[in-house]
Amino acid sequence: MGASGSKARGLWPFASAAGGGGPEAAVAEQALVRPRGRVVPPFVFTRRGSMFYDEDGDLAHEFYEETIVTKNGQKRAKLRRVHKNLIPQGIVKLDPPRIHVDFPVILYEV
């Protein structure tokens, strides 16, 4: 599996940089880990939409058009995927907000 971005930058609070020192030192080290740079909130309020609008204003993941194919004198209908003239959905508001993937907290239910 891949590593998240926070582990690669050294912001993972559960990684111990000091070799040894007992459990008290590890707990104190984890409690004092602070992110470098600007403070990022733990919630995500928006995301990039994965759907598209077509010329008619319809919203969907994929669009198909029906085409008539004549083969050996017989007419047959086939579906062809439309790739042109599609407009991305853009930014979508999340309701309720989600927890950011790089937020270093373990969630559990009691």
From TrEMBL:
It comes from the Eukaryota. One of its GO terms (cellular component) is mitochondrion. InterPro entries: FUS1 (IPR029393). GO terms for biological process: cell maturation; inflammatory response; natural killer cell differentiation; negative regulation of interleukin-17 production; neutrophil-mediated killing of gram-negative bacterium; phagocytosis; positive regulation of interleukin-10 production; regulation of mitochondrial membrane potential. This is Tumor suppressor candidate 2 isoform X2. It comes from Tursiops truncatus.
